[in-house]
Amino acid sequence: MVQFTLPKNSKVKKGKAWNPPPEGSSPARWREYRIYRFDPETGENPRLDTYWVDMEDCGPMVLDALLWIKNKIDPTLTFRRSCREGVCGSCSMNIAGTNTLACTMHADDAPKGAIAIYPLPHMPVIKDLVPDMTRFFAQHRSIEPWLKTDSPTPQTEWRQSQDERAKLDGLYECILCACCSTACPSYWWNSERYLGPAILLQADRWVEDSRDERTGERLDQLEDPFRLYRCHTILNCTKACPKGLNPAAAIASLKRKMVERAG
Q1: What is the CA radius of gyration of the chain?
Q2: pLDDT-derived band of residue 25, with 50, 70 and 90 as boundaries?
Q3: Domains of the chain (ranges plus CATH)?
Q4: How confident is the model at residue 6 (pLDDT cuts 50, 70, 90)?
């Protein structure tokens, strides 16, 4: 029988229980959180620490609970956050088994019992809930996400009809949180070459833009067995997107354009 063994330092250990509720307190008042902790400087294995959050003293969102823990229980807990409005994408993480944004995830929407929180899957971890997104943003830069034109720059603005503008709906709203890409098995195994759902959705946004004059050049850059065609339409990306976008449809649109231009 084939057996697979994880590297020694990748096995998650049971961690510390920080602040159990006082005896006699109402169970409904406290919510248990099990949070992934990892500090590469210690050389120790990652662990799952347990915290209890007083929901009468804390806001309703998962991000509120993380801030409550950091401010009142454990200041060493590390995570990203910024806007608290689902706009910046900084607080993306895996909550109760789903990639999402901590600032828009209501604690009551998680299954009953302890809420498990991990960093985004299949990315190197810098510390605790902070993934290393260097490759992800390098891939975004590789598609040159800006308007590219050959015509003289107009004195006012680049004209665009309402119908042309409507083609960008469902594309421009992407906040690059990486929830979709890190939910994609193809990206897990081929992230060094496959661009992934988020970046391909961004690529389609510029291909669809009527003001851009380098569509052929953009499609040429995607004409590769891995950059685009590692998508197998699993649709995890569409299910995971916290903004309700459809990266799978954007990828299908790019593939269709490839076929159409080939004749």
Answers
A1: 22
A2: confident
A3: 8-131 (3.10.20.30), 134-146+159-262 (1.10.1060.10)
A4: low
